């Protein structure tokens, strides 16, 4: 992994400051510095240069009065998609799969969708008439 995360940066840090830091340490970069408030990213030509940058700079070089941190960049974890059908019902349900202030599971939504040849569309119109919307967790 050749992408580096540069942390603990001053809000005044700009790309040219970081270019100077890397140039002074004789560490090449293979792209521009992407600077955000308090942190930045940069690519190194290969893994060996990335490791040298971490060893030479992390906690050892000060920029605008703060010691910079240099680490391998870790990609954000992607959240799995949320699939749920939530219905709040007043009174009993004819299908028995849901009742007052409960939620269908994904499996139940899928079964119901197969039964009606519709995908996640909720209860039939006759039952929809009995629905009300309330904030979650309130009876």
Automatic annotation (TrEMBL):
Top-rank lineage group of the source organism: Eukaryota
Occurrences of domain RRM (ranges): 2-75
Biased composition (Polar residues): 130-139
Keywords: RNA-binding
Keyword NAD: no
UniProt xrefs under Pfam families: RRM_1 (PF00076)
Region feature (Disordered): 112-139
InterPro entries reported for this sequence: Nucleotide-bd_a/b_plait_sf, RBD_domain_sf, RRM_dom
Gene Ontology molecular function terms on file: RNA binding
Bilayer-spanning residue ranges: none
Keyword RNA-binding in record: yes
Name of the molecule in the record: Insulin like growth factor 2 mRNA binding protein 3
Species of provenance: Equus asinus (Donkey)
Encoding gene per record: IGF2BP3
């Amino acid at each position: 992994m050749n992408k580096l995360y540069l942390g603990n940066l001053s809000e005044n840090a700009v790309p040219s400051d970081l270019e100077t830091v890397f140039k002074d340490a004789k560490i090449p970069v293979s792209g521009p510095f992407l600077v955000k408030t308090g942190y930045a990213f940069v690519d190194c030509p290969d893994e060996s240069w990335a490791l040298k940058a971490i060893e030479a700079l992390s906690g050892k070089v000060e920029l605008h009065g703060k010691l910079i941190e240099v680490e391998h960049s870790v990609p954000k974890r992607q959240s799995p998609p949320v699939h749920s059908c939530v219905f709040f019902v007043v009174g009993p349900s004819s299908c028995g799969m849901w009742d007052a202030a409960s939620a269908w599971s994904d499996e139940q939504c899928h079964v119901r969708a197969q039964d009606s040849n519709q995908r996640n569309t909720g209860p039939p119109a006759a039952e929809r008439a009995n629905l009300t919307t309330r904030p979650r967790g309130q009876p």
